[in-house]
Amino acid sequence: MPRLLAALALLSAACCAFSGCGGDSSDSAEARRVEEAVSSFLQEAYGPGGDIDFAYSLLAAQTRQTCSKADFQAIALAARQANGDRSLQTDRFSDVRIAGNSATLKVDSDYDLTPRYFPVDATAVKEDGGWHYVVTTDPTCKSVPRFFQHAS
User: Fold this and answer.
1) Coil/strand/helix, residue 104
2) What pLDDT shows up at residue 117?
3) Which pairing describes strands 102-108 and 121-127: parallel, antiparallel, or unpaired?
4) Is residue 93 part of a domain?
5) What is the pTM for the complete model shown?
6) Distance between CA 79 and CA 16 in Å, rounded?
7) Which domain holds residue 31?
8) Alpha-carbon distances, residue 53 vs 3, 41, 64, 115, 145 (angstroms)
9) How buried is 144 (Cβ within 10 angstroms: 0-12 exposed, 13-18 middle, 19+ buried)?
10) What local confidence, expressed as pLDDT, does residue 104 receive?
11) Helices 69-83, 25-46: inter-axial angle, 10-degree rounding
């Protein structure tokens, strides 16, 4: 019996390490969906081989109402030019917070550029069953410095 209890404790510890202790697995699955949506947006918008039109479709409806496709393309192209042909490493996220149909998270990239042409904080909303990126810095997409929070 002690061996069985020890085996169960070991199995429980392994499951805890793999999936996170004390958290609801549906919460962690939803957090992964938020991370995947933000990562897809960032790769498509700012990655050297991304599809800017597809990135625009990944924007939240509220952002598309104030940010025209042409203005977004200009922002994305400016960022791509500044970032060069670097491959994005956007799979490092932290502090994912989901409240209803809204989520925020921190984005850690491998870029060491000043000024930075990559967001540090991200916001997403759930629409039509999927997560979509919200531009919070310059929802009009008219100012590269405001969009990427560069000091004036």
Assistant:
1) strand
2) 77
3) antiparallel
4) yes
5) 0.78
6) 40
7) 27-147
8) 58, 11, 12, 25, 22
9) middle
10) 97
11) 80
